[in-house]
Amino acid sequence: MADTPFVHPCALCESDDVGAGTRVWAFAHVMKGAHVGRDCNIGGHTFVETGAWIGDSVTIKNQVMVWKGVRIEDGAFVGPGAIFTNDRYARSPRNAEVPAIARRYADEKAWLGETRVGRGATIGAGAVIVPGITIGPFATVGAGAVVTRDVGSHVLVAGNPARAIGYVGRAGLKLAAEAGGLWRCPQTGERYRAAGAGLEPADG
Fold it and tell me: In which element (H, E) is residue 99 found?
């Protein structure tokens, strides 16, 4: 593991809060005030805004937009072209025609919607995440999905708007239903049981 981050000569990394072993590839832009943890991969043409928070061992593929208020926890994967958002009722704060717009944007709390991607979760290529959403640990968002509401742990969602279509294990494969309300991973053999809006490991 490297002791320092690697920043490609064609990348722009203005943040001094990037962890050891992280790689920032060509034409990516990490703004000052963004946090990026250790051993991450930030793909080319990705944009990470001031106030965004990325944990350790996160993979972010090319052309991903990560805005202020977005928190991506350890071990998550974000596929190419995925887009996060942070303002559910966006207007240009420079529009002087409607004074109420400027008043709204004078207070960050009035417009900023915080989004959280849980530990080990996957966001598929081209997915769009509406502000204020929580995606649970080890959940999977299918490619091209538009996520408009929270996603439980280990839940698999797809479509526009995204709907639950199954469950996935820690290894990412779709789980098979078993007797007694349990779910089993076909690769690892791990079993899961219902917990809240999602699943949790059943084997301790």
Answer: helix 99-105
